[in-house]
Amino acid sequence: MSGLFTLAKEIQGLNVTLQQKRGERKGKNALRAGLEASVGEFVRAKKLSDQEVRDLFEGRALVGVDGSVNQFGSQYPYAIHLFKALAKSTVAGRDGTSSVERVKMFSALDADSHRAVLHFMQQRREELRVAPQEDRLIERDLAEQQAYQMLVDQLMVEMELQAAIEAVEKFRPFLLLMDGGFSRLKGKSGELWDQFVETVTDAGTIVVGVIEEVGSYRLKSRLDEVDERLLDGFVRGHDREVLFNLLETGEWLKTSVERPIKNEFYTVFTRFSDQPQAGACDLLREQADRVDDVVNFLYTITPSKSRGIPLWLDIVDEQARLTRKQVEMIMKGNLDQEIIESFLRSQRERRDF
Amino acid sequence: MMQIVGQTTQLEAWVASRARKFQINEILIIEERDQGDPKAEVVETMTFNRYIPLASEQNQFVDEGVLSGLRQVGFAIEDEEINLAKVRLIEELTIPIKVGAMVRVPRFAEVESLLVKRRPAQGLTLGVIQGTAEIAKDMPADLLGVAPLFDKEQGVRAQNGVPFVFDYRSMDQYPHIGIFGGSGSGKSFGTRVLLEEIMMKQVPAVVFDPHFELSFDQEFPGLPEEFRQSFKKRFVVLDAGVDIGIEFTELQGDDIVSLLRASSGSITDAMETAIKAVHKNRDSYLSYSTRLSNLAEALDNEADIRKSHGELEHLNPDEKERVSTLYNLLKTYKDKVGGFAGTLRSVMRRMHRLEMEGVFTSAGTKKVEEAFMKRQLVVIRGSMYFLNVFAFYVVRKLYRKRREYRDSIQKGRPIEEKFPPFIIITDEAHNFAPKGDVPAPAKGVLKEIAQEGRKYGVFLVFATQRPALLDDTITAQLSTKMVFRTVRSVDISVIKEETDITPEEASRLPYLPSGTAFISSAITGRTNSVRIRVSKTTSPHFKNPFEELEEAFAEQDAKLWEAIEPILPIDAFNLNAYLTDVSRKAGRTLGHDELAHALEELCEQGRVVQESTPFGSRYRKA
């Protein structure tokens, strides 16, 4: 038990430090003034009436895209990954269905998958932190493992984009919601991203990346330009820390289009629900002029007591997800028990307690 | 689209469907070719919408504005409903049901053998099997229109599923029927339908009717033309003690004990011994009761009689005979009856009461037997206590006759008298054959029939609200049970033990709608949920007693007013002068006080006013 007491002491210490740090902060208003001077204006979003929503969409659909990846088994290479990407429309297409689904199995145990990993490793030699050397098995394995993980991420992004492209072609929606920001999508998909942008532009579809939790680190430098002491009392000054409880419910930070905080996209910061944590939306720069309509609509379809994600994305997310139970059932139903035991069962699962 | 989802066993699975709601008890086919497309019954239904969850701390109910916004772009959250049904296979497999297998509604031909064991022409059509509305669409003509239904809101309505036809001819294998259910559960209604079907098949039957509700000459209103039927020639109603009596000469000492016990509750050991000791074979009521009273007299005057007997030759002839009779009685019976005249008098009092009530007549069961020969249903009416006395005698006599007839055939003896197979039906059966040590005169013979009746073609239909109070041996012998709504937990647990109804079904028992029953039968091999058909007849209408009270008095008041009105004004001091006239017109004799009371009442109602005159008060019309 004494160990736990020691830990508690240490945590209490951290708590005191952080509290002291917070005490040094300037008021909320100073920070808001700083952001207005350097980033953009604070705007109140509006809940749209039914008529306004109809006028905006003109009968076209809303599509949400999300993906899920599940791992079954132990550590690389003794694991199987299952991918599912889903694009779901509020209006059914001509064939009567209202969603596009992509699924894929990927595992280093599978020869084709493994070849893909080796190929990827060759291509991205430089990016891999561990240099694969033919004669050193451990390092080679580590590199392979890293490559595998990167490939998994890339595959997921590709599948999401493919589903999105197909859905745009099929439903020609007014608005397409992606779960997560654009950086990840563009960074991991290469040419596919360009194809995606082309498709949505052709279809006249507005596309938005809805970011639940801001991970960027852009505001600090802007604020420092105004006054370096504005962020006194902040630990690191990541965007999420800066924006925490800064926006009122329904308020958003409309960043300047002329001086965007990301180079490639147009990003605004939002607070759609009672949760004090801010979110963000990525738009294509060419579509930045639609930001007011988009934000108002997203605010309209976000439950005030939720975690701040438009309900449609929550619904898509729920359907895109494979539950733990589903994964186990499909694995156990289709793999022989001895295969599972010899290749895929992790020792952790065998724990008695 | 319906599909097996989740985890399955070799017996049970969940079926999901987006568009189609499941009906409890409906039969579905699981498309699994390797297993021969097994059939399953829906035992539990459920509907949920995962986007409208129960509100909880994690799951806040979504704001209406959000839903409305999504509705405008084409998404209605209400349509995301998912229907689920737990199904249980009719026959177990050896391996679990395949997850993901498609499920469909069967065609009638695929489930015919399961649902219809007999055609309506050869069986008793009791109602409609629940959950078969969809299957019934391609049913052959002879199964249509045989079981219209009834409910309070819509009245008589069309049959909406596969009829439940009870294969009564298989009762020789699986005898006896139990009908359980509380008041208002539709038990009486179900019994009536069963009796109608028995009459339609012209199976002789005898019903004990303590409620005076079983007659079949009033037609149920609003029946479709082709469904109407007259039962006037198919049944007779007999009153216990008038049309049926007990022939005393047929009774044994034991029987008299049973009868007296049933009619008067308690009997002492001394009385029992005395009854048996004094009884002689073929005794008539007169001979037996005379012997008892003589013996009582002899015991009272024992010393005198012994003395007189010593000097017999001095007595006159009458006296001589009396003394020697009494002396002989003393000699024969004194030791056996205990020498106390009070005991004998108690017995006599009890016997006398029965005799006064008309129990001992020579009517016997002749009328029942005549009706049986005409293949009729015999309804025997009487108070519960009276029926208890009679049931014992009637049932035993009829059963013996039938048994003798069958035995004669079996043993190749000459047949004296033909006697048909028959069914014995009784409501409040727990009174005729109570559980445990509670005595009831007919219990013995009923138990015997329960155990051996099928050999002779004698069957029981026992209806009761309290299965828990019914004799265990009999309960165990009921091969078919119709279970209506039951609320008492003791009764539910008896039903659970004695039938193959599932825990899900048992938990539905307290909520079954009136007129719906689970029919668990060894003949069908499974439990069916059945909506009982509308009866063709209805019980004689009894007026609500309170309405009756109002109506009767209103009539009387109206008559009185008619008599008083023309002779107004009436002088209060001279009421006697009007009495004759009013009495004649009102059709009954009124006294002075009654007329005064009536006039005051009329004043209160405002029809008459009382005014003062120099000659006293006077009533005149208002």
TrEMBL record, chain B:
Q: Please list the GO terms describing molecular function.
A: ATP binding
Identify the InterPro entries for this entry.
HerA-like (IPR008571), HerA_central (IPR002789), P-loop_NTPase (IPR027417)
Show the stretches that span the lipid bilayer: 377-395
Residue span(s) of domain Helicase HerA central: 175-336
Arranged from A to Z, the UniProt key words for this protein are: ATP-binding, Membrane, Nucleotide-binding, Transmembrane, Transmembrane helix
Keyword hit for Methyltransferase: no
Q: Which PANTHER family match?
A: HELICASE MJ1565-RELATED (PTHR42957)
Name recorded for this polypeptide: ATP-binding protein
